[in-house]
Design brief:
single chain; eight-stranded antiparallel sheet; Rossmann fold; 606 residues; six-stranded antiparallel sheet; globular; alpha/beta; binds fructose -6-phosphate; Glutamine Phosphoribosylpyrophosphate, subunit 1, domain 1; 19 helices
């Protein structure tokens, strides 16, 4: 939610800021802006809309300078507009601020400032910060920052410039991510790694309540009281190639096609040559765990739905899945005998982070499944299992989902073995099926053209349904979310058996129904449900395993066949054609598939 970049060094700062913001556009793209330290003043440029608008403005009239901060916005307080864009500044433009997060007490701070005669140019919460820095400015500006940060409530990652410190970027963090990149005679700040990868792979992760003073040849860290803090320099293993489109027309397509590798990497990290699942670093006595709560948002929540199946069916542990923003307010029965699993690609989703903190406060053991090393959720959970999806840039999550589900299956097998509730033969059978997933996903991806042709039939559809029973229903939920967010088609996922209790009234001539039928034990019932919608005029596209081809073809208009795989694992593979379907409907409609309207990838507000 909003992206921040800062640069100080010998190069033209605006080039580096624009380049970095482009990598962070997935965090929000309502507007973009830049503040550059030029001779004796701060030059600020900001434009509503995509980053392209800011780039064009800078192309028309460049801004000289080797130190700058930039911002790409996802609007929270105030509509997208030039005025509400960051950076925000004081009235004589000697202080400029970019901010990611929300200042919760901004109303009372704004009132205090208005009473003192300050005027505001924007409707944002952020604007109180430069005004407060102006009001309380003292000889040592760093002390002013500490003082102001003690006055604000809420979350922030901040980049701050002051014309009196022409060689310095000040930065600070609380509950919104911020990293400092270390280069050779140049240094950086950013919300996320892809913005820096082209220039450096050495980063410091700012912790909550930490501030930084960043100059061309030094970086220093402090706490809110101004005490010096020693920090570890981390080396990022992601490559530049991973963070670019690499020949694909969109990040989403690239990331869908990366799944064989990302699933394989996730498996390889945790499965030995002797087929042992290596989770012994997870400091947990599974015998003591009476229940598991899986908590997440959006696609990560949908991965949790599959996780619940895996944990209950394989490891025989009572498991529940909750939406993070609801979990906290539902008085969950979490205690010291509970394991709370937080699933988050970014590791920064605020609702999930808050659920983690609440669960810890209740004494539960917490385990994070996340893709971003050093993210807040990774750092605050008792234990972490990383997915090895590599950077996921497209706003719609694809490879993060399949790697999260993969982790759940490994975890379920691991717990089952620890609890001695699985026979060796069954363990090996499920594991072999899991290990076959990367190859099978490759085979499914080879059907891309076939899937695109089916997508063509849905270009003009306004509504659609995804149906499934059991595990297939959880896949239907993810497939429906994918379709909605990138194609803007209104779709709903339904448990096939529930359809006749009301929803079937919506089935009319030619409405697309995507039916998933991978579960043998539910197969006949699922086929009957397909017949019911077909009889009412639906256009049915079925997704099933090859072994079911004959019967499913009889009741469907189109069929996408996935290779035969154990029913329990089929949820990982059968989502892949549906990701492709959503991608194609979106691009065939001419939409911006990587940056769907109103969305941002990293949701760091509640
Ligand atoms: C949908 C999507 C979102 C995220 C959700 C949680 O494609 O990407 O629904 O899954 O915002 O984000 P993370 O996993 O970063 O916590």
């Amino acid at each position: 939610m909003c992206g921040i970049v800062g640069y100080v060094g010998g190069k033209l700062a605006s080039d580096i800021i624009l380049d970095g913001l482009e990598k962070l556009e997935y965090r929000g793209y309502d507007s973009a802006g830049i503040a550059v330290q030029t001779e004796n003043k701060i030059d600020i440029r900001k434009k509503v809309g995509r980053l392209q608008n800011l780039s064009e403005s800078i192309q028309e009239k460049g801004i000289e300078g080797n130190l700058a901060i930039g911002h790409t916005r996802w609007a929270t307080h105030g509509a997208p507009s030039d005025e509400n864009s960051h950076p925000h500044y004081n009235s004589d433009m000697t202080i400029a601020v970019v901010h990611n997060g929300i200042i919760e007490n901004y109303m009372e701070l704004k009132k205090e400032l208005l009473d003192k005669g300050y005027t505001f140019n924007s409707e944002t919460d952020t604007e109180v910060i430069p005004k407060l820095l102006d009001l309380y400015e003292e000889e040592d500006f760093f002390k002013t920052i500490q003082k102001v940060l003690k006055m604000v409530r809420g979350s922030y990652a901040l980049g701050i410039l002051n014309v009196k410190y022409p060689d310095t970027i000040f930065c600070a963090r609380k509950d919104s991510p911020l990293i400092v990149g270390k280069g050779e005679k140049e240094n950086f700040i950013a919300s996320d790694v892809p913005a820096l990868l082209k220039y450096t792979n050495k980063v410091y992760y700012l912790e909550n309540g930490e501030l930084g003073i960043i100059k061309e040849d030094s970086v220093e860290f402090f706490d809110l009281d101004g005490n010096s803090v020693e920090k570890e320099l981390h080396e990022i293993k992601w490559t530049m190639e991973q963070a670019t489109k690499g020949g694909y027309s969109h990040f989403m397509l690239k990331e869908i096609f990366e799944q064989p590798k990302s699933i394989e990497d996730t498996l390889k990290r945790r499965i030995s040559d002797k087929k042992e699942i290596l989770f012994d670093d997870i400091n947990l006595d599974i015998e003591k765990v009476k229940d598991i709560y899986i908590v997440a948002c959006g696609t990560a929540y949908n991965a949790g739905l599959q996780g619940k199946f895996a944990l209950q069916k394989i490891a025989k542990i009572k498991s529940d899945v909750d939406i993070a923003s609801e979990f906290r307010y539902s008085d969950p029965f979490v205690d010291e005998n509970s394991l709370v699993i937080l699933v988050s690609q970014s590791g920064e989703t605020l609702d999930t982070l808050a659920a983690l903190r609440d669960s810890k406060a209740k004494g539960a053991r917490t385990l994070a499944i996340t893709n971003v090393i050093g993210s807040s959720i990774a750092r605050e959970a008792d234990d972490v299992i990383y997915t090895w999806a590599g950077p996921e840039i497209a706003v719609a999550s694809t490879k993060a989902y399949t790697t999260q589900v993969t982790v759940f299956y490994m975890l379920a097998l691991y717990f089952a073995k620890k609890k001695a509730c699985i026979e060796e033969k069954e363990y090996n059978r499920i594991l072999d099926n899991l290990l076959a997933v990367p190859k099978q996903v490759e085979q499914i991806l080879a059907k891309d053209n076939e899937i695109m042709k089916m997508a063509e039939k849905m270009i003009d559809c306004q509504h659609g349904f995804f149906l499934g029973r059991g595990l297939d229903y959880s896949v239907a939920q993810e497939a429906s979310l994918k379709m909605k967010e990138v194609s803007y088609m209104h779709t709903e996922a339904f448990a096939s058996g529930e359809l006749k209790h009301g929803t079937i009234a919506l089935i009319e001539q030619d409405i697309p129904v995507l039916a998933i039928t991978t579960q043998e034990s539910l197969f006949e019932k699922s086929v009957s449900n397909i017949r019911e919608v077909k009889a009412r005029g639906a256009f049915v596209i079925s997704i099933t395993q090859e072994k079911n081809a004959d019967l499913v073809k009889q009741v469907s208009d189109e069929v996408i066949l996935i290779p035969d795989i154990d029913d329990l694992i089929a949820g990982i593979t059968c989502v892949v054609p549906l990701q492709l379907m959503a991608y194609h409907v979106s691009t065939l409609r001419g939409l911006d598939v990587d940056k769907p309207r109103n969305l941002a990838k990293s949701v760091t507000v509640e």
